[in-house]
Design brief:
3-stranded parallel beta sheet, mainly alpha, single chain, 171 residues, elongated, Rossmann fold, 2 domains
Amino acid sequence: MLTVDQTSDKYLPSSLLAKRIGAYNKNMAELLPFLRNETNCNEICTEDAQRVSFKNMCKCVEPTIVAVRSSGSKDATDVKNQVMKGLVEESSFTSLEVNDLIQLEVARQTEVGQAIQELLNDGKNVWSDPVHIVSILKRIIYSGIDGNDKFLLIGFPDQIEHAQIFEEHCA
């Protein structure tokens, strides 16, 4: 149980606390139907064990995306491979090989694949317009297929501007 010393500025006498809890419950009774009807409301029972409540909350949060890179040395590459293996095998991350996804889009001649092919035909680097790559990743990451919400990006560049572009297009 959490205790707050009566001399603390965070202390509330029980009568004031009871009034605030009552006001919260009244407001929530009015707000909850609105949230259910007008938003993507997720309700989580906090009377469950904290571990269960937290796990349920995490299911409602945006996907988890990890990009693992190394400096290229043998030791760093070994560590990177161990981390990647652990994420895929032990934590159920879905591995996304970015270069393979790009090649697949080009081979399938999708709209994005055609745009990437045009860049290549013009002698430009695929990453000169990373919006296309982000589009591919966004479609996969937010697909919700098989409940996948944890992804390991392999081959995604580590330059700051590309990371910022990814964040901007997934917002």
